[in-house]
Write a structure and sequence with these properties.
heterodimer, A: mainly alpha, B: mainly alpha, 3 helices, about 70% helix
Chain lengths: ~250, ~70
């Protein structure tokens, strides 16, 4: 069938793009699965969470929250804050996802940093169906993460050495993400505010309930700063033009 | 909407929330391994190397060193 051939050709073209993602997702997915196993969850949990949440770093945080007292509001706000960048991915993909028909809901759901980086930067080769190509990239990346997490959850039992200390993988992951962010951003102030507010909230509210206050402090500080900057901009403008005798 | 830098900073601090700097090992294993991650990442710029290196070092420290 022509449709099948079109899909197969797109799969062949899409697969090479996803190979680097495969290495990263399997490594982190395996770690995540083993981590969940060490927390006492059966392999079903990391597998379903990997498939349904598909949120990489977020899933490590949720794993810890599943093992702590029930706090739905904290989970919701942390999830929103961590994944808010996906809103921008969605806006950037509006045009490309047009006319993708039945694939569209899945393409939207399956969007992640890595898939976005491929879909936004690479065009499929001549003659390859673009919709199928986007579909395969999304599905392949998603499946790497899920199989990695499932294998990690299953392998937790048979790893021949102690897993004590493995949880540091999450710390290491977030440190690398933070370094990448600091090296790429022009304005370091939000990051500094994030560090200070988090430490202050941790000291004030303790390990189990500092996330929500920390988020609120960050948002409030950054909003205040933006207001002040806007006011400074407005105050600066007439001065630059030199046509204002400011009444003090 | 909070900028990504602030959120990533919060997540990095979150990872240290259960570390007791005043008792036990005083957070020395965590800080050593974190320093290794920073060093590796600035040097190699590879998430895989940084995460694997830091985690293995941490596991070695807590399983052998600070027992």
């Amino acid at each position: 069938m022509a449709g099948d051939r079109k899909a197969l050709a797109a799969l062949k073209a899409a697969f090479p793009y996803t190979i680097p993602i495969f290495a990263g997702f399997w490594f982190l997915g395996l770690t995540y699965g083993i981590y969940m196993h060490a927390l006492g969850f059966s392999w079903i949990y990391p597998t379903i969470m990997a498939a349904a949440i598909f949120g990489g770093s977020l899933e490590f945080v949720i794993a810890g929250m599943l093992a702590s007292p029930f706090a739905p509001l904290a989970v919701l706000s942390v999830t929103l804050a961590v994944q808010a960048r996906h809103i921008f991915y969605g806006i950037a993909m509006l045009k490309r996802y047009e006319g993708t028909g039945w694939m569209r809901p899945y393409l939207i759901f399956g969007m992640c940093d890595e898939t976005f980086s491929i879909l936004a930067s690479k065009e499929p080769p001549e003659g390859v169906d673009r919709n199928w190509s986007m579909f395969w990239v999304t599905l392949l990346d998603h499946s790497y993460w899920v199989t990695g997490a499932a294998l990690g959850g299953l392998a937790g039992d048979i790893v021949p050495f102690s897993m004590e200390g493995l949880s540091f993988a999450m710390t290491a992951l977030f440190i690398t993400i933070l370094i990448d962010q600091v090296q790429k951003e022009h304005d370091h102030m939000p990051t500094i505010v994030g560090v200070v507010a988090s430490i202050v909230a941790l000291a004030l509210f303790g390990a189990d309930s500092f996330m929500l206050p920390a988020l609120l402090m960050i948002v409030a500080t950054l909003m205040l700063r933006q207001k002040r900057q806007e006011r400074a901009d407005v105050a600066d403008r007439p001065k630059e033009q030199g046509d204002c005798v400011c009444d003090r | 909407m909070p900028s990504p830098g602030a959120i990533f900073a919060l997540l990095a601090i979150y990872c240290f929330k259960d570390v007791d700097f005043l008792a036990g090992t005083h957070g020395v294993p965590e800080l050593l391994a974190a320093a290794a991650v920073v060093g590796l990442h600035l040097w190699k710029h590879s998430m895989l190397i940084s995460v694997a290196g830091g985690t293995i070092l941490y596991m070695v420290i807590v399983q052998c060193g600070f027992a």
